[in-house]
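User: Please predict the structure of the protein below. I'd like the answer in structure-token form so I can feed it into my own downstream comparison script.

Assistant: Understood. Taking the following sequence of 89 residues as input:
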Amino acid sequence: MADIIITLKDSTTGKEVVVELPDNVPIKTLLPQITEGLGIEHAEQRQLQNKTQSFDYLENDTLASKRTNANDLCILKYETIQGWVEQET
């Protein structure tokens, strides 16, 4: 296991922090640590996006499996949940 240093940015507040994270841990496991580093209480409905390389991480991806580079900028954003609401007539 190796650690990688990346810059994290919260899409809602714009807050940025530099963090060192393990590169072989699934993103879903890292989200609580990531949100804590940004001062956010909950990791639910969050998604991590690598802005430097223009891709989204899936829950089971790791930083290593997506070939994340040191000093990449990663954005924590809210997941968009699509759906529809049936309206009464």
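That's the full token string. The domain at 3-78 is CATH 3.10.20.90 (Ubiquitin-like (UB roll)).
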